[in-house]
Amino acid sequence: MLRSMGNQDQQFTISELSQEFDISTRTIRFYEEKGFIKPERDGQRRIYSAADRTRIRLILRGKRIGLTLAESVDIIDMYDHHGSDAAQLESLLIRVRERRAALEQQRRDLDEMLSALDDVENVCRNAQLTVS
Amino acid sequence: MLRSMGNQDQQFTISELSQEFDISTRTIRFYEEKGFIKPERDGQRRIYSAADRTRIRLILRGKRIGLTLAESVDIIDMYDHHGSDAAQLESLLIRVRERRAALEQQRRDLDEMLSALDDVENVCRNAQLTVS
DNA sequence: AACACTCTTTACGTTAACGTAAACGTCATC
DNA sequence: GATGACGTTTACGTTAACGTAAAGAGTGTT
Fold this sequence. Notes:
Two copies of one chain form a homodimer.
Chain A (H helix, E strand, L loop, with lengths): L10 E2 L1 H8 L3 H9 L6 E3 L2 E5 H15 L4 H11 L6 H46 L1
Antiparallel strand pairs in A: 1-3, 2-3
Helix pairs in contact in A: 3-4
Chain A binds a DNA duplex (30 and 30 nucleotides) through helix 2.
């Protein structure tokens, strides 16, 4: 786990992140408003760390699979939840399994839908041959 | 494709479907209000066909993977879109491929998230051994 | 007839996730 | 010192997907 720890202290402005992820600055401020990220300040200006940037990336990934922001954050927080307490570990494990069950159901639904689209595509091809 | 055509003419009341799918009757009427299903009537009462029922099932599957109702219906309508016209077939094929690309991206995101959860679970196990 | 259901329409309320606009602060630059 | 470019706060607006409540119709039961 020992990394070279090069430049973890990189910083970003709001417009940089906005452009990189193709989201509005309003969206980024909204995430902060909801407590999902907590950038530092240089006077009034917000300064985002590499960790903030990663959180945004993960939130957006969650969005793409249809999770709400709260759900995404809930999952993300599992990653670095160092609840050393044994009871906390247990409840964390339970939550992880619940999430995984839901995500696996999602994957089944996704696969069904994909194979249905495959069928449509094949039917289309055949029809094209018939027509042409 | 010749099926035995047993009882395709089955009918359902709104409360039957509501219970079967564990959604409210309001939701079912809402779907109709939006034009996603068009049940017949017995006087005032709505009567749902097997096809209506299937559409609801597919809409709900779409919901589970995070699609909007409009998106779900858009995909569902691809299934029985018998656009015999060659140009229509072509544009349908394009739309099918677009959808599939998005769904495949979704599956990648899903798989990443699942493997991240696997990691969390393993870390938890190790921590449990350390603690106990 | 009175009730109990199930269904109907109409309509206002709610939450999430932002969009949009107004009004202002801070630098650099022309 | 005015003009941009970029940032800030505050606040009202918007859409999707229903929830919830009110008031009534139809059908069967006691």
